[in-house]
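A reminder from the course coordinator: this example appears on the midterm review sheet, so study it carefully.

Given structure:
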C-alpha cells in the first residue's frame, strides 16, 4: 500500500473512536460536576488579538516561544489561544456580567512546544473560572471541584500541590529578596536563568535545569513574605480544604508557568504517570488580570485540566474505560425488499441504538458484521419473515436464543429486554 501523502502535523493527533467517545464522556462528566455548582458553559473564539495573551507574562515560555501567531489579512496580529483564562477574562471585561460570574469551558489550546509523551501542540483542556469575589471559600470550592472530578473518574493517585504567591502589596519585597539572593550567587546560576532573572526573578524558580536546583532549593520563600491579611487568606484556604477532607501538599516553590497569578496557586500531579509531564491540571487566583485587560478591578480564580494527560493517567490507573459504542440492535436483511432501511429508522425513533449491514450481502456475511458490532440483538428478515410480516430476534449476548415476532410486537419486546 502506498504511504499517505499527509499526516497530522507534528505534536497533534487524530482522536478516533472509541478514544473520541471516551474524551466526550470525560467532558460530559466534567460538565456534570461543575454545573451542579452553578458554573455555566462559556465559549470564546479560538483566536484573539495577541495582546490578550501577552498578559500571560513577557518572561513565560508560553509567550516568548510557544505562541501560534500570525498577521491576518486585515493586518491585525492574531494568536491561537494557548489557554483560556485570558480569553474568558477578556469576555468578562467586554460583557460585564453580574458577579460572581462562574463559568466552565472545554476545548483545544495551541502551544508550539517540543512534543513528547503527554505534551502536544494542540491539546484539550476543561476548566472553570470564577470572577468577582475574594472569599477564600471560593478558592476551596474551585479546588474541590477539580478534586471531585478526578475522584469521579476513578483516579486515586493524584497529589494536590498548594502555594500562595502573594500580591502587589508583598510581592515586590519578595522579588527584591529573591533577586538579591540569585545575584549574590549568580556564578552558580545557569546562563538561561541569569537572563530570566533580569526579566522576572520568580520565573527562575520554575527552571528545570539541574544546575539551578541547589540554588532554587535554598531560595527565600514567598510564604515568608505574605502580609498578615494574605497569610490569613491562605490559612483559610488550607482549613477549608481540611474541612472537606481534601489532602494537599504545601509546595512553597510552586510558581506555575503563567505570570498572572496572585495568592492561592495549585497544581495536580498524577503520581501514576512516570513521564515528566505529570501535571494533569493547575490554576489559581489572578486578581489583577481583569484590570490589566482594561476592566474593573475584579478578583478571579480558576483552573484548567489537561484532558489528554488525564486520559493517560486513567490508563495508568486502569480506570474510566471508553464507553461502549456498540448498537443495541443490528438489522440483518436478506429479504431483498429493503426492509432494513425503514426498520432501523423505526428502531432509532423508538429510542434504540441501531445499525445495519450494507450492499445486500449474504446472510453469513451480514451476521459476521452483526457479531463484530457487539450488538445485543440481531433482527433478521428473510423471505419467510417478509411474507409473514415478522422478524426473527436473536439474542447475541444472553441465552434467550431466538424467536419469531410480528413486526408490530418488536418494539415492545425490545423494551422488555433492553429497558
Ligand atoms: P497550565 O498549567 O498552563 O494552566 O495548563 C493546565 C493544564 O493543561 C496542565 O496542567 C496540563 O495538564 C495541560 N497542558 C498544558 N500544556 C499542555 C500540552 N502542551 N500538552 C498537553 N497538555 C497540556 C493554564 O492553562 C491556566 N489557564 C489554568 C488556569 C485557569 N489558571 C487559572 N484559571
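Designed residues:
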Amino acid at each position: 500500500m502506498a504511504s499517505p501523502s499527509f499526516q497530522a502535523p507534528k505534536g497533534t493527533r487524530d482522536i478516533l473512536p472509541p478514544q473520541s467517545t471516551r474524551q466526550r464522556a470525560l467532558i460530559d462528566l466534567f460538565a456534570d460536576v461543575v454545573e451542579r455548582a452553578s458554573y455555566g458553559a462559556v465559549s470564546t473564539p479560538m483566536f484573539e488579538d495577541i495582546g490578550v495573551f501577552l498578559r500571560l507574562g513577557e518572561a513565560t515560555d508560553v509567550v516568548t516561544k510557544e505562541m501560534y501567531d500570525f498577521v491576518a489579512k486585515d493586518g491585525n496580529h492574531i494568536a491561537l489561544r494557548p489557554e483560556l483564562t485570558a480569553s474568558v477574562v477578556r469576555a468578562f471585561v467586554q460583557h460585564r456580567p453580574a458577579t460572581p460570574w462562574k463559568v466552565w469551558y472545554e476545548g483545544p489550546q495551541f502551544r508550539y512546544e517540543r512534543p513528547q509523551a503527554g505534551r502536544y501542540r494542540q491539546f484539550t483542556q476543561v476548566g472553570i473560572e470564577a470572577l468577582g469575589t475574594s472569599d477564600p471559600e471560593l478558592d476551596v470550592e474551585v479546588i474541590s471541584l477539580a478534586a471531585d472530578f478526578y475522584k469521579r473518574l476513578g483516579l486515586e493517585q493524584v497529589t494536590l500541590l498548594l502555594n500562595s504567591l502573594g500580591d502587589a502589596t508583598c510581592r515586590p519585597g519578595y522579588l527584591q529578596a529573591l533577586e538579591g539572593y540569585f545575584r549574590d550567587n549568580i556564578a552558580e546560576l545557569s546562563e538561561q536563568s541569569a537572563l530570566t532573572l533580569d526579566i522576572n526573578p520568580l520565573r527562575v524558580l520554575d527552571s528545570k535545569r539541574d544546575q539551578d536546583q541547589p540554588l532554587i532549593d535554598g531560595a527565600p520563600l514567598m510564604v515568608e513574605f505574605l502580609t498578615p491579611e494574605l497569610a490569613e487568606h491562605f490559612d483559610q484556604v488550607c482549613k477549608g480544604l481540611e474541612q472537606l477532607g481534601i489532602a494537599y501538599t504545601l509546595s512553597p516553590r510552586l510558581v506555575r508557568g503563567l505570570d498572572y497569578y496572585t495568592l492561592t496557586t495549585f497544581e495536580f500531579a498524577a503520581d501514576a504517570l512516570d513521564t515528566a509531564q505529570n501535571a494533569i491540571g493547575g490554576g489559581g487566583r489572578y486578581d489583577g488580570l481583569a484590570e490589566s485587560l482594561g476592566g474593573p478591578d475584579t478578583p478571579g480564580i480558576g483552573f484548567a485540566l489537561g484532558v489528554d494527560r488525564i486520559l493517560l493517567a486513567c490508563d495508568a490507573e486502569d480506570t474510566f474505560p471508553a464507553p461502549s459504542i456498540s448498537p443495541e440492535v443490528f438489522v440483518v436483511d436478506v429479504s431483498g425488499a429493503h426492509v432494513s432501511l425503514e426498520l432501523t429508522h423505526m428502531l432509532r425513533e423508538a429510542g434504540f441504538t441501531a445499525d445495519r449491514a450494507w450492499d445486500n450481502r449474504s446472510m453469513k456475511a451480514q451476521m459476521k458484521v452483526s457479531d463484530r458490532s457487539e450488538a445485543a440483538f440481531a433482527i433478521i428478515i428473510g423471505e419467510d419473515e417478509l411474507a409473514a410480516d415478522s422478524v426473527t430476534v436473536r439474542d447475541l449476548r444472553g441465552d434467550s436464543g431466538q424467536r419469531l415476532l410480528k413486526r408490530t410486537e418488536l418494539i415492545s419486546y425490545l423494551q422488555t429486554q433492553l429497558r
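Residues 83-85, 111, 113, 118-120, 123, 125, 127, 129, 257-258, 279-284, 286, 302-306, 308-309 surround histidyl-adenosine monophosphate (CB under 6 Å). The first helix runs from residue 19 to 35.
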